[in-house]
Amino acid sequence: MRSFSDATWPDIEALMARVAAAKPSSMCQAADGFCALMTDTFASVVLARLFIVLPFGRLPPTEQRFVTARLASSAKLSPTTPTLCLLGTRGLQAVWNDRLQSQGHLAIPLLDSESVRNSPMIARLLADLQIDLKALDTGMPIVTRKLLGGLNATFFVADAASAKDSQGRWVIPARDFAEQRGVRTVFGMGGSYVDGTLVVAICFCSELLERQVVDRFPSLISSFKMGTASLVSSGHVF
Fold this sequence. Notes:
- With 238 residues, the protein is α+β, with helices and mostly antiparallel strands.
- The protein has one domain (27-231): Beta-Lactamase (2-Layer Sandwich).
- The chain is built from 9 helices and 6 strands, in the order ααβαββαααβαββαα.
- The chain has a 6-stranded antiparallel sheet with strand order 3-2-1-6-5-4, with helices on both faces.
- Helix 1 (9-21) runs parallel beside helix 9 (219-234).
- It is globular, with a radius of gyration of 17 Å.
- The chain starts with 8 loop residues before the first helix and ends with a helix.
């Protein structure tokens, strides 16, 4: 295994080829494979996860129950509510290798702009993807200007040990996880399919990375999208 900082462009191209060559039967299988590739390749990856944004009504019963059990009120929840759903996960602990065992991130409803802003990490993620949060308050599909036309974006937290938002809140709020596992840089790569469906992969790393290093990796999500576009269009997500 190597570090992100030492990875050359030929290394990244080789990873892109491996992602593109995969023949998954579902988005979940593809997501698990992608996360496993990141943890197997880079020694500093403590946890890798891949999410998709789907309307609440398209989630399986298990994910829907997960959402409703954690809401104080479901008044704002509807079949069209955009939901950040965990598709794949790999990490240092065995429990992190099964998405259905996630205690808090299996499915996260994006109810409105206020609820998003109350979650520092989700707020930073959506800001970096240039999501129009106003759409969450009007019931319109969320859109991202930056990702239209096949472009990709980078989510970046330089140092989880010190990063706070404008209100002084930790951007990575799971402090026990970050401190015990020595998590430093957290970064993600996100993109949109032709139909507007968003997908994002996130890596929690013990390595302290510069922005210019991280910006070389969103090409991996391009390969992932190309390899899974037919699965999204045919509804083979879970």
